[in-house]
Amino acid sequence: MSRTAVERGIERYVDDLIDVAADEFSVAAALRGGVRGPGGAVVDRLLGREGALRRHVVRPELDATRRDVLDGFAVVLDVAESDDSVSDRADDLLAHDGFYDALREDLARERREAARERLLERHRRLVEAARPPVESPEDEFWPAVRDSLDADAARSLLETALSFTDPVVADREAFAFVASFDPGEVLQLGPLGRGVPTVTVEYTDEAIRTMRRAETVVTRRATREARRQFETV
After folding, report:
1. Superkingdom of the source (predicted)?
2. pLDDT of amino acid 114
3. SS3 of the chain: helix, strand, coil, percent, to 5
4. Which residues pair with 179 in a beta bridge?
5. Distance separating alpha carbons of residues 45 and 207, to the nearest angstrom
6. For the chain, which ranges sit under pLDDT 50?
7. Residue among 203, 198, 192 nearest 65 (CA)
8. What SS3 class is residue 103?
9. Mutual angle of helices 2-24 and 59-81, in 10-degree steps
10. How far apart are CA 2 and CA 43, in angstroms?
11. Pair 176, 102: CB distance under 8 Å
């Protein structure tokens, strides 16, 4: 049961992180800095529809990130419960890692391998941090954490689980975060939108800024909660 408890506990913080990221994301910064191709001609009109862009583009991208994070964490817990190593399950972990998917296709092999190893190293640290509460007999998150970890280890678990961008910041030019969307749908042009070119946006800088900010905010909240939990023991 503790596996489910850990999964649900981390899911709550991931949901919080995605909500903060949605609030933090600057549509203007993403559009002005990263529109590719002929779709750039509609940027001014798109900037006037920020609410629609958030509904049709930003939130779906963040929801996909949430799914990847939680699906990847499920594999982390599989490893924590088994005798497998992260290397044994590397393909499964990276299949749900949106940062791995965002590696630029033209990267040199050595640079790609270095980025891949940094991503897997984070998974290794998370497996080790998650294993004790997963093995606890408690069936709720904080009781399982208190049963199996001290305060410092609990903070380490939360910080590792909620920090996604360190491997990206180490070599940010190796990554490209891209979204494509139909401006006719966003602008609600109806039949007039036929023939309007798809807009493709590379929003790498804004993605990293947003996620770093959200990680900081939510990790502080989580570690404050950890402090309260251990103060009451």
Report:
1. Archaea
2. 96
3. 75, 5, 20
4. 201
5. 22
6. 192-193
7. 203
8. strand
9. 160
10. 49
11. yes
- The DSSP 8-state label assigned to residue 197 in this structure reads P
For 134, the token pair is: 């997963």
Rounded to the nearest 5°, which phi and psi values hold at 49? -125, 50
Distance of CA 114 to CAs 86, 90, 200, Å?
16, 14, 28
> Backbone phi, then psi, for 202, in 5-degree steps?
-95, 115
pLDDT of residue 53: 80
For residue 138, give both structure tokens.
């408690």
Secondary structure class of 2 (helix, strand, coil): helix
**DSSP code string of 172-192:** GGGB--EEEE-HHHHHT-GGG
Distance between CA atoms of residues 193 and 181, nearest Å: 12
Report the distance separating Cα 98 and Cα 110, nearest Å: 20
* Lookup: tokens for 181: 């969307």
Please write the tens of the pLDDT for every residue from 57-105: 889 999 999 999 999 999 999 999 999 999 999 999 999 999 999 999 9
Q: Among 88, 156, 157, which Cα is nearest to 120's? A: 88
Cα distances (angstroms) measured from residue 43 to each of 114, 120, 186, 187:
36, 37, 12, 11
pTM of the model: 0.88
Q: What is the 3-state secondary structure (H, E, C) of 21-74?
A: HHHHCCHHHHHHHHEEHHHHHHHHHHHCCHHHHHHHHHHHHHHHHHHHHHHHHH
Catalogue the E-assigned strands of 101-229. Answer: 178-181, 199-202
